[in-house]
Amino acid sequence: MESLTTSKFKGFTTFDLKIIGIVLMFIDHIHQMFVPMGAPDWLDWFGRPVATLFFFVSVVGFSHTRSKEKYMLRLYIGMLIMTLGSFTLQQIVGYEEVQLMNNIFRDLLVGTLMMYGIDKISEGRSSKTFSKIALGIVIILFPIISSGILMLLMSNPSAIMVAVWGVNVIPALLFTENSFMVLLIPLLYLAKNHRWLQCMLIALTAVFFFFQGSTQWMMIFAVLPIMLFNGEKGRGMKNFFYVFYPLHIWLLYLISAYVFMH
Predict the structure, then answer these.
(1) Number of domains in the chain
(2) Is 79 inside any structural domain?
(3) Angle at 260 between CA 255 and CA 262, to 5 degrees
(4) Distance CA 249, CA 77 (A)
(5) Is the dihedral angle over the CA atoms 149, 154, 156, 162 positive or is it negative?
(6) CA 26, CA 235: separation in Å to the nearest integer?
(7) For 145-193, how does the pLDDT look when each residue is reduced to its tens digit (9 = 90+)?
(8) pLDDT by residue (tens digit) across 95-124?
(9) Which of 145, 111, 138 is nearest to 124 (CA)?
(10) With the C-alpha atoms ordered 89, 177, 167, 120, is the resulting torsion angle positive or negative?
(11) Could you write out the three-class secondary structure of the chain?
(12) Range of the domain at 32
């Protein structure tokens, strides 16, 4: 009886959600890298819930991290390494059939900045400190304002290279992989104490994409594992994702390039 009891499903931990996201992401990136070889479009469907899962996990992680500043710094370093590594790899290999535009670290950093801003506003309201409220508003608006500035620079031929490099080092909402969908992160953070509301926000976003005719509506399937989240951390894998994410993309890119060129 004891073995039966202990073997009962107790829900998903943060670790489990990350593993689910990583597996689905890997399948999606197989599609991305092997499109020139005729990879079927349905492989792309597996990736549609991935960003939503990582957004939810980032909300959980940010809510419980000991140092939110260090959390953001890790994401920023990850964003820079991903950008520099992908650019260098493409220059060396010269495989133009596949473009390495992936950088989920940028999405998560923008979302985390907004969560940090929400915290500052909350602290300011509690202590009745206007400067903290103002700082929080500035932090939340920064990825949006920086997007506008970078877009204006890109429209100026003499400043386009400045804009390109600015995109690489500045967290800007419109230059994330998922664009406005990243706003789900601060929204999920505001609703962090109400799982049903978080899932409702995800569902409403999925409905929007459905009527847009985008397969991104399949993000709705992220709701199931999120509803089954048990609130526990599970096994530690603090740095695994920071290493696995760029390495698996670069490795698949190299394999695709080799297959295509031979």
Answers:
(1) 1
(2) yes
(3) 95
(4) 17
(5) positive
(6) 20
(7) 999 999 999 998 888 888 888 999 999 999 999 999 999 999 999 999 9
(8) 999 999 999 999 999 999 999 999 999 999
(9) 138
(10) negative
(11) CHHHHHCCCCCECHHHHHHHHHHHHHHHHHHHHCHHHCCCHHHHHHHCCHHHHHHHHHHHHHHHCCCHHHHHHHHHHHHHHHHHHHHHHHHHHCCCCCCCCCCHHHHHHHHHHHHHHHHHHHHHHHHCCHHHHHHHHHHHHHHHHHHHHHHHHHCCHHHHHHHHHHHHHCCCHHHCCCHHHHHHHHHHHHCCCCHHHHHHHHHHHHHHHHHCCCHHHHHHHHHHHHHCECCCCCCCCCCHHHHHHHHHHHHHHHHHHHHHHC
(12) 8-261
Given a contact cutoff of 8 angstroms between Cβ atoms, the answer to whether 203 and 220 are in contact is yes
Choose among 100, 76, 245: nearest CA to 170: 76
**136-157: per-residue pLDDT in tens?**
999 999 999 999 999 999 998 8
Give me the amino acid identity at 57.
Answer: V
Question: Does residue 1 lie in a domain region?
Answer: no
Q: How far apart are CA 81 and CA 242, in angstroms?
A: 10
Tokens 């399937």 sit on residue: 221
Residues 78, 104 contacting (CB under 8 angstroms)? no
Is pTM, for the whole model, over 0.85?
yes
* Assigned domain for 2 exists: no
First to last CA, the chain: 58
Q: Is residue 197 part of a domain?
A: yes
